[in-house]
Amino acid sequence: MTDVIDQQGYRANVGIVLINNRQELFFAKRKHQRGWQFPQGGIRIGESLTSAMYRELLEETGLTKDHVEVIYQSKEWYQYKIPKNFLKKLNNASPQVVGQKQKWFLVKLNGSDELVDLTCDSKKIKNLMSGNGLILQSQQKKWFGSNKTSMKRF
After folding, report:
1. Do the beta carbons of residue 63 and residue 110 sit within 8 Å?
2. 4 in a structural domain
């Protein structure tokens, strides 16, 4: 499956700010990486913004549409260039992607923090998405924060 890349080389992406009932934010960390981030990912060719958001939410948190409520979607695209030393090159050619442009969603978790399944695997995702053939990237996620629910209040 191919992500949408515009003519200027920006990869279309959705970002998700997930909050719980206590207005705490969810952050995730990929295995073998140092940085923390909100769930996010590319928009596939032919996929709507909302469909991409729900797919990424499922892939990265195990949450489905039934677990959340969309509070807000950004009206504008936010874009940034990827530093040159992080750009991937294809066959020693110039980089295919120069940056990302993102639409952001504010999403509220309806229910317990325990609904977030950080061990969600591709088989479960395929079952939940009616066999769309989604592939879960190998990631390890953790809650960010020092309290029992591992959510961080700002």
Report:
1. no
2. no
What the block records as the tokens of 7 is 């003519």
Q: Is residue 147 part of a domain?
A: no
pLDDT digits (tens, 9 = 90+) for 1-17: 689 999 999 999 999 99
Q: What is the total count of domains within the chain?
A: 1
Judging by beta carbons within 10 Å of its beta carbon (0-12, 13-18, 19+), is residue 40 exposed, middle or buried?
Answer: buried
Query: Tokens 């039934």 belong to which residue?
Result: 66
Can you give the pLDDT at residue 148?
Answer: 37
How open is the CA angle 139-78-58, to the nearest 5 degrees? 30
How much of the chain exceeds pLDDT 90, in percent?
Answer: 47
What is the domain extent for residue 44?
10-128
DSSP 8-class letter at 52: H
- Residue 35: count other Cβ atoms within 10 Å of its Cβ: 8
